[in-house]
């Protein structure tokens, strides 16, 4: 028996394979042509560009608060590029910045302007806190990351019931006071920004030691060395997101929460009851007023506080409200359950 078969029989598989390859190629070209005629959605266009890795775009001139970065210095150019690369590729953080900016920058901008502070300092708040009421490991708190001592020096109230480091408007005013004083000392907004990171005393010591008052010539700690470049990088990216690979549609950004203001001049025994009285709930009341740190306000000094309440119809329904007896019953059952767990 001829196991290999005849030469003629051997040719057929080769001919068939070649034919299939030709058909596949033709079909591929036709498919490609037909699909190329279809309109691509904006999302398709975005997806097709997402995975390119490239050096960041750097304009010929870059400034912070009207003061030019000396990009002809190799170390300055490379430092800026480093922060651009980091923030371009720190997608989760940068995307959230782009979404939150429309909610918070309109609050910060007019306060900076009214105090004569350059608009670029809004980016300082962004890199300090990611526009969140963060608490650092050292205890720096709020959008502007005030330590308690510095906050009290800037006339912010800080106690167990009220902590105005969490108050966006008041903490922004306090930051303006600090920056004005820093500018008076150092004569430069860039140096004022650097002092916000390392403190006026720490920066003054380095100016004296190095006999230099120009930020871009000073050798400082790593965080402060990167600080102004981070601000400049975030300014560039958020100013022209698509140039740096980010695409956030207007309807995807977080809008401002409409609210009304209520004056409080007395004690408040229960902020939950206060919230219900104003047709909202405790969660939304605290969301708009994170500076309220307890469920009550003693207010022995009878100060006047302005409390924000969500506008009617804006996340203010009370469908899940229960009465006091039901709340007490749930709390009692929870206590009994815990006791049972311990006994078991």
Write the layout of secondary structure elements.
Blueprint lengths: L6 H30 L5 H8 L13 E2 L2 E2 L5 H16 L1 H24 L7 H8 L18 H6 L14 H19 L2 H10 L1 H11 L11 H18 L19 E6 L6 H7 L4 H7 L16 E6 L13 H20 L1
Antiparallel strand pairs: 1-2, 3-4
Helix pairs in contact: 3-10, 4-7, 5-10, 7-8, 8-9, 8-10
Would you kindly provide a written description of the structure presented here, covering whatever features stand out?
The chain has 344 residues and is mostly helical. The protein has 2 domains: 63-252, Lysozyme; 259-326. The chain contains 13 helices and 4 strands. The strands form 2 sheets. Strands 1-2 form a two-stranded antiparallel sheet. The termini are far apart.
Q: Care to count the β-strands?
A: 4
CATH topology of the largest domain: Lysozyme
CATH class assignment of the largest domain: Mainly Alpha
Mean pLDDT, to the nearest integer, reads 87
How much of the residues is beta strand, in percent?
Answer: under 5%
Q: Characterize the biggest β-sheet.
A: 2 strands, antiparallel
Could you tell me the radius of gyration in angstroms?
30 Å
Give the name of the CATH architecture of the largest domain: Orthogonal Bundle
Contiguous uncertain segments of 5+ residues:
1-12, 22-39
Mass-distribution shape: globular
> Structural class from helices and strands?
mainly alpha
Q: How far apart lie the N and C ends? A: 83 Å
Fraction of residues in helix: 40-55%
Instruction: Name the helix and strand elements from N-terminus to C-terminus, one letter apiece.
Output: HHEEHHHHHHHHEHHEH
Count of discrete domains: 2
């Amino acid at each position: 028996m001829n196991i290999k078969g005849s030469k003629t029989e051997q040719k057929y598989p080769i001919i068939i394979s070649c034919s299939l390859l030709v058909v596949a190629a033709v079909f591929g070209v036709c498919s490609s042509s037909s699909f190329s005629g279809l309109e691509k959605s904006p999302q398709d266009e975005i997806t097709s560009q997402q995975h390119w890795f490239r050096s960041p775009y750097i304009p010929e001139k870059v400034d912070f608060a009207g003061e030019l970065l000396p990009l002809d210095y190799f170390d300055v150019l490379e430092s800026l590029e480093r922060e651009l690369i980091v923030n371009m590729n720190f997608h989760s953080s940068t995307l959230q910045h782009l979404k939150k900016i429309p909610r918070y920058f309109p609050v910060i901008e007019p306060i900076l302007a009214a105090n004569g502070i350059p608009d670029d300092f809004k980016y300082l708040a962004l890199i300090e806190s990611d526009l969140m009421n963060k608490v650092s490991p050292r205890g720096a708190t709020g959008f502007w990351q005030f330590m308690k001592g510095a906050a009290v020096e800037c006339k912010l109230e800080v106690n167990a019931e009220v902590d105005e480091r969490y108050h966006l408007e008041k903490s922004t005013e306090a930051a303006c006071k600090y920056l004005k004083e820093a500018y008076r000392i150092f004569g430069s907004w860039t140096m004022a920004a650097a002092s916000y990171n390392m403190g006026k005393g720490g920066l003054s010591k380095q100016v004296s030691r190095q006999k230099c008052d120009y930020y871009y010539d000073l050798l400082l700690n790593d965080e402060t060395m990167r600080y102004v470049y981070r601000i400049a990088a975030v300014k560039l990216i958020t100013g022209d997101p698509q140039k740096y690979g980010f695409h956030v549609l207007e309807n995807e950004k977080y809008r401002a929460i409409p609210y009304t203001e209520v004056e409080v001049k007395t004690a408040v025994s229960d902020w939950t009851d206060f919230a219900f009285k104003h047709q909202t709930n405790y969660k939304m009341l605290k969301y708009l007023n994170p500076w309220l740190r307890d469920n009550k306000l003693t207010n022995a000094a009878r100060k006047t506080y302005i409390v924000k309440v969500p506008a009617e119809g804006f996340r203010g329904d009370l469908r899940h409200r229960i009465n006091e007896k039901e709340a007490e019953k749930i709390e009692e059952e929870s206590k009994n359950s815990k006791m049972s767990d311990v006994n078991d």
